[in-house]
Design brief:
globular; TIM Barrel; 2 domains
């Protein structure tokens, strides 16, 4: 039996309409699963506009030379109970004897960082830790240039840069501390001082690695005092760091690298700092990070 032409045409139109509706239903479903950042970046080439990079808020609790196994166990239980904001990154900077203990017990969303490493893999370097040793026990992060390393052990940024270069070559992720002295701030040279530190680090860190770095702004004048970085201080410093990185490296790296604010931070101060647009995280010392209020400080970016 022959099918009339109008029936064939109707079938074609019907099939076409069905395909159109199916296509758009799939596209709507795809769009529904995209984040705002994904949608923005998918249009960046056409619109030629700046899209803010998608970055997780990152909070580091540096225990320094504090704590024991009992306290470490208590903090691990506290972190497990939370609640923690979904998507926030949490780093515990633990003393070397407890790195493996914490690494084996921590919740999945927590990472462990060593507080220092050496610039060589093996050798007669009594008391030092190598990148390979950290990776062997599953530790993927290291803190370099912490204020006390510079104050008490006279580490300069050439040495910090050498350690950073070696750590990156071995696949570790870095939190690098920067910050000015009291004298440099008194002379209103704080931004220049930090940029000088970054210029030295640039000699050792390839341009391609800067977008993955975490910089912790921890001014030396705040160490061992109750003098905190103010929101105005934080804004000025982050603006200076990103301006330098845009010029010295590239705009993507300047926007993607994360900048934490450190020094003595109270729970209320954490909220004031964390809600600043350009602050990517907090670098918190042992007093708050070994106490229950650490959970609230991890969540301080909640609106």
């Amino acid at each position: 039996m022959r099918i009339p032409k109008f029936s064939v045409m109707a079938k074609i139109l019907c099939a076409g309409a069905l395909s159109y509706l199916t296509y758009h239903a799939i596209k709507q479903e795809e769009m529904a699963t995209k984040s705002c950042a994904d949608e923005c970046h998918s249009r960046i080439q056409k619109l030629k506009v700046y899209c803010p990079p998608a970055k997780n808020f990152i909070v580091t609790g540096n225990w320094k030379m504090n704590g024991d196994k009992k306290l470490a166990e208590e903090m691990i239980k506290m972190l497990r109970c939370g609640p923690i904001v979904t998507g926030n990154d949490v780093i515990i900077g633990a003393p070397a004897p407890y790195l493996d203990f914490i690494q084996q017990r921590k919740p999945k969303f927590v990472e462990v960082a060593a507080q220092n490493i050496y610039k060589e893999g093996v050798g007669a370097y009594t008391g030092e830790i190598s990148a390979e040793m950290l990776l062997d026990i599953g530790v993927k992060w290291v803190i370099l240039g912490a204020s006390e390393r510079r104050i008490y052990f006279n580490e300069d940024y050439e040495f910090i840069g050498e350690k950073a270069k070696f750590a990156l070559e071995k696949g570790l992720r870095l939190i690098i501390c920067v910050g000015e002295t009291a004298k440099e701030r008194e002379c209103k040279e704080q931004v220049r001082a930090v940029i000088d530190q970054l210029e030295i680090l640039k000699k050792y860190i390839p341009n391609s690695k800067w977008k993955h770095l975490v910089l912790a702004y921890e001014p030396l004048w705040s160490v061992g005092t109750e003098n905190s970085v103010t929101p105005a201080d934080a804004k000025e410093m982050i603006r200076g760091i990103r301006a330098w990185a845009t010029k010295a490296i590239d705009e993507d790296s300047a926007n993607l690298m994360r900048v934490q604010i450190g020094g003595p931070i109270s729970p209320s101060g954490a909220k004031d700092l964390a809600t600043i647009k350009d602050v990517d995280g907090l670098y918190i010392g042992p007093s708050p990070s070994l106490k229950p209020e650490f959970i609230g400080m991890i969540n301080s970016n909640m609106e």
